[in-house]
Design brief:
The complex is a heterodimer of chains A (391) and B (322). With 391 residues, chain A is an alpha/beta fold. Chain A contains 13 helices and twelve strands. In chain A, the strands form two sheets. Chain A has an eight-stranded mixed beta sheet with strand order 6-7-8-3-9-10-12-11, sandwiched between helices. In chain A, strands 2-1-4-5 form a four-stranded antiparallel beta sheet. In chain A, strand 7, helix 9 and strand 8 form a beta-alpha-beta unit. The chains are: A alpha/beta (391), B alpha/beta (322). Chain A: It is a peripheral membrane protein.
Amino acid sequence: MAKAKKDNGHYISRQEEKAIAKYNRKMTKELEAKKHRKNVSEDTYLTTMKDPKNIVEFDDLHTYFFTDAGTVKSVDGVTFSVPANSTVGVVGESGCGKSVTSLSLMQLVQAPQGQIVKGSIRYNDGEKCYDIAKMPSEAMRQIRGKDIAMIFQEPMTSLNPVFTIGYQLDEVTLLHNPGATKEEAKKKSIEMLTQVGIARPEGVYDNYPHELSGGMRQRVMIAMALVCNPKLIIADEPTTALDVTIQAQILDLLRSVREKIKGSIMLITHDLGVVAEMADFVVVMYAGRIIEMGTAKEIFLTPKHPYTVGLMKSKPVVSKKVDRLYSIPGQVPNPINMPQTCYFKDRCDRCHTACEGPYPSVRKFSDTHQVSCYLYDDTNTKDNDSMEVAK
Amino acid sequence: MSETCLSVQNLKKYFTIGTDFLGRPTQYLKAVDDVSFDIPQGTTMGLVGESGCGKTTIGRTILRLHDLTDGKVIFNGQDLSKLSRRKLRNLRPQIQIIFQDPYSSLSPRLTVGAIIGEAVSAHKIVPKSELKEYVLQVMKDCGLQTHYYERYPHEFSGGQRQRICIARAIALRPRFIVCDEPVSALDVSIQAQIINLLKDLQDKYGYTYLFISHDLSVVEHISDTVGVMYLGNMVEYGSKEDIFSNPLHPYTKALFSAVPMPDPTVKMQRIILQGDLPSPANPPKGCKFCTRCPECMEICKTDAPEFKEMTPGHKVACHLYK
């Protein structure tokens, strides 16, 4: 039995277990202490943006989870930026690190086991530029919910069931504008509820979350995110729990909201259709790394990475006939023992000898379009796959 | 088209939501209200609709996991709703179900072999001595490696678990399988694997599926006939080609236009429905869709439309079509 367990890679001996626990304690203690520093001067976390037009820049971000079975590299060197007035879509399957990337930006990664280990997240608030990865959590509280707001996946569980909608909305105003009175907060909340298309805002103001439908709750969540006029809204799978007709309403709302607040949206989803419709830029993630990124047109019309191509071919599309769906064989590798090679190697149908080498570096096709794959080492190679999908 | 495998006639399922002080029901929730359809042997019928429209209730009522309020479910010439428990038990192996959530539908205390083999031995599908061999064969059919036999469900990912659920269902050599959102909880690349598996098994063994899903693209891919449901009623029914290339009911049109296309160059003419699904406990009078319908007329608010055949095999319930 023990041998069988060893084979499947889950087995760790008592000794190894101890060593892992010791290492985890050391690492998390160190990083937690850094986060909870008091009275830190601003200079320690001020930086400059690479491009002042961006709102957020992720630079070589590493977020690890120190678990009992070993270190899970959820986000392993992610670099991309969110320009002002645009929507960036982050796509990938579950467990690829797309949610953890956004949680890192909010400093909401499950602590103490989840920690930003390396890299920086630069945030530009118009005058100053902060490095969120270095910020103590006290200072972060000023930004979170005010300049950067988040809409979560489950509208059912992200509202507090024991408080009225109005109370929860007022809280945001009262917290971030210390001078505001209760009346002002109520006025603001009702204005926000009207803005997200709720028909009887005064009624909903006094309702409890369970009295509303899923679509209405998601609207309330969006209203809550909008209260402080954020510069960036992170929408983490905002429509996954909703029906298609309601999804269409919510996407429409998000689009109009973006124009109103003149901010950016970072849209995290696994639905390629939603991304195609909403996003200007697309980032495709696989096993904690970015494998391809570019503008929506580049990604959908000329996808380069075999994974992106496979993902697009495996999703049936209404009014497009295929006899048999393409399916990417196998599964995502075990996140604790990632191979040294390309993570997609074992599932790739265009794998060749060069793929045995270390993780492929980034290759650029245009200013925006870049891929990590050995296929394009020789730039003469024609991309047959992308043609196939484009037709 | 060959003989009919399953025929559902005027199926009604009401849940009691209010009783008077003697315990007599006073208020009903009409989860399924007068739905009829036939599924020919060896084909797949897709059932689409928003959450709360009664798709799952239909699936479960067919299996008699819920007892129906009125109507008939005829399988193999027998009315399932009138069978005694014992007779139904004998029929059970022939009608199987695959549930939506592969995480909660497998017992965490049984090994994969035991999960798949349990019903096989209970229904004496194969002699005891051949049980293990038979289970291994079924596992191979479903793309599971044979050394998984001794493992427990928690060791598997969602896609593998769904394969175990499928293996459990087909191990009984069923004729008819209800697939209740079998791919909704899975990632896109795994979805494709499971859909292909279901299709391969159908080609190999001639199963009949009732495929319940809210994902229209998946339903289009797998189904031969499609039924569209809204608030407990079937609003449109027809062959896949009819429904997808020529949708008649305004709800079907809106539903199709709401599906996002993975192509940034296509700008869809979207019909955005206003408002939410009304509460099924208190549905609107007349046509149930009248509160959200973009083409609502006066008659819709008072009279419920009939379910009429427009062209052979294509039925619709709407006042727009006389």
